[in-house]
Design goal:
4 copies of one chain form a homotetramer.
Chain A lengths: L3 E7 L15 H16 L4 H6 L3 E11 L8 E11 L3 E10 L2 E13 L14 H9 L1
Antiparallel strand pairs in A: 1-3, 2-5, 3-4, 4-5
Chain lengths: 136, 136, 136, 136
């Protein structure tokens, strides 16, 4: 599909651990920051999903850590939609410090309603907008 | 009032920072763990507040850090109700490693409804139970 | 190998997100809690690794989320050593609420020295102890 | 003194809790983000302190929460040096969403060496730079 977004951010002190590097779970938080930015750039902010009673719950997440990142590093996360259907979506992520790839990951999601049941997004008002984006 | 609870827990690796000690914001998380335990011991688990559409939002929090805590430390948090009325509540906390006081803090709260407006708990089903506890 | 440990803990309010369930990155934190407990039960607390200048850095982490967990849930995490050599180790994790499997995951690690370089643990004082455990 | 910095950032999904608003402990993390930015703008990035074996440990932190912040809010944090000497420092913080003050807080710090003992910064190479800033 090739829909992607680039987000810059700085590593927070709170994100480090006593090994002197970023604690690994924080990369999943950054992936979500990248995902948020991607939706925003597509004029489809994630808040709109939730306003319609839709959630995009994570069912799988994985990350490969290649090099450590450190406090105050200025990082870039590249988020790409791997696949999106009316029921599921998956994204891939790459975290860079300048030209150096630090980590890469993937998340898989399902659309859920407010009760936490899987739903078909085609029944929601957001669908035409989502569809037009996917067709690009 | 003197209502208090004691909770034991171990410091997680994720809670440390690159200074080699626990990152200070985590103490507020621990305070909430202590508060949860206190309500549970009073047979008034916080989940019951939320089931009735009530929240106990933090409006003030403070902590004094006396000695650092470290990964794998076995800590005890003592949580005490300082004051509770039908609209507000305040708690104090002490974090110990064995006999050593590491930190102490305080939080102040208001009761809110689901819309985030301050409410009087006397209008809620939980009130008689809460009142009987406060009278002890 | 079959070396495993069981750890119980309660979900913290801080671990939830506005979907009303536990934010997915926290499972990686719990995995580390399980790993810590496993080492402690093997009489080889992770603090001993670090005292000898050794780290066990995460190079891969993954999680499959089957059912959500919620605030105040009492959970059990089962941590198992999948593989351990003098240079690398991998662990698998299962998170349960009573009989229900909520999530399962895996982490892969390398032993690093203080400078962050991969090392062979056989050169460290901890090795005989580690070896005797692995031979069980 | 009047030395201050302004930092913009967006609320992360991970920072919310099941009340649908930002979990209160995250404000302390944001305060640290503001502090980092302030030092960077003074050409005295906090990494330089640590390179010289100096830490600026938090000994007190407090926050008053006036209005909730929510996922995806674009916030501004204004960080100000209240007081700085060769041994201690204190900062104040204000968190805004556009014109609305959401929270304000304060932290107090001591300079520590690598062993965690209070030190006098005048003995460190960073002092002349720090002094020149303070005299502004």
């Amino acid at each position: 599909m090739g829909l992607s977004a680039k987000t810059s951010f700085r590593v927070r002190y709170a994100e480090t651990d006593q090994m002197g590097i970023v604690y690994h779970a924080n990369y999943l938080v950054w992936f979500e920051v990248g995902r948020s930015e991607l939706f925003r750039e597509l004029n489809l902010p994630y808040t709109q999903f939730e306003e319609q009673g839709l959630g995009l719950a994570v069912i799988e997440a994985s990350c490969r850590y290649r090099k450590p990142s450190r406090y105050d590093d200025e990082l870039v996360i590249i988020t790409e939609i791997d696949h999106m259907s009316s029921r599921t979506a998956s994204f891939s992520y790459q975290v860079y410090r300048e030209e150096t790839l630090l980590a890469e990951g993937k998340t898989v999601h399902v659309f859920l309603n407010k009760e936490g049941r899987p739903v078909d997004v085609r029944k929601y008002a957001i669908w035409p907008l989502l569809q037009s984006i996917l067709e690009k």
